[in-house]
Write a structure and sequence with these properties.
Layout (H helix, E strand, L loop, with lengths): L8 E9 L3 H4 L2 H15 L8 E5 L7 E8 L2 E8 L4 E8 L5 H11 L4 E9 L1
Antiparallel strand pairs: 1-5, 1-6, 2-3, 3-4, 4-5
Length: 121
């Protein structure tokens, strides 16, 4: 009987809808969110948080964020047309995915959210 291998890490996707329009359009707020999220995760940031606004197509225009962490990375995109935040967390250090969902929804003052969690092997 083969044993299932121990997970190498956890990947969490968090989608938050009807966010505070001002917060998702503010690079400083997105950076602050990223720093607070990394603190909550107990993960050390590696390098600066990159926050870039782009998109010629109004369907996708908004900021994107990337933050390397010593155990992998945090990334996100903020869709201005729909006031939605799409956050991804991948780490080989354990964390509570639902706590990250709650924090993200509260930070961006979203009305509701969805979460997807996958163990990476």
């Amino acid at each position: 009987m083969d044993q299932e291998p121990k997970p190498w890490g956890v990947a969490t996707s968090i989608d938050v809808y009807n966010c505070n329009a001002v917060k998702i359009r503010d690079a400083q707020e997105i950076t602050r969110f990223t720093h607070e999220l990394c603190e909550l995760l107990g993960m050390k940031r590696f390098g600066k948080t990159m926050v870039v606004r782009f998109g010629d197509d109004p369907e996708v225009t908004g900021y994107s964020m990337v933050q390397l962490i010593e155990t992998s990375l945090v990334s996100g995109h903020f869709a201005e047309k729909t006031n939605a935040a799409y956050i991804d967390i991948f780490s080989c250090k354990p964390y509570d995915p639902d706590a990250m969902r709650k924090f993200t929804q509260e930070f961006f003052e979203g009305e509701y959210s969805n979460i997807g969690v996958r163990k990476r092997r």
